[in-house]
Amino acid sequence: MKQILLFALLAGLFGCEKAEENIQQNIILEAMTSGYWKVSSYKMGGMDHTTDFTSYKFQFKTNYTVDALRNASVEKTGSWEADPAARTITSTFSNAADPLPLLNGTWTITRNSWTYVEAKQTISGTEHSLRLDKE
Hints:
alpha+beta
């Protein structure tokens, strides 16, 4: 009988953790997929590359793809994934033209709200920082 109660308690605890993870994932999904995003800042090793992205908008979708739109047309579709527990977002634009490959990789989120995300990653010893703002 004690084993059944212990099992039920553990199942309930893990079920609550999973429910909380699902809630966090759903909040991120809602925030990212409503509206369009623009790169408002991109720095690589202290050098500003923001202007490389001025003609782009990004639309994140619920199927974890992301469209890079340029002049209202989809230039490239990539993929994205968020990990709320690790505070990371990963994006991949395979076989894309510059500057889109600069967005590839796993980014650590340093600050965020419903309308912006600031993130960093280090590639080959060079720090990259990014800010996305919702339009």
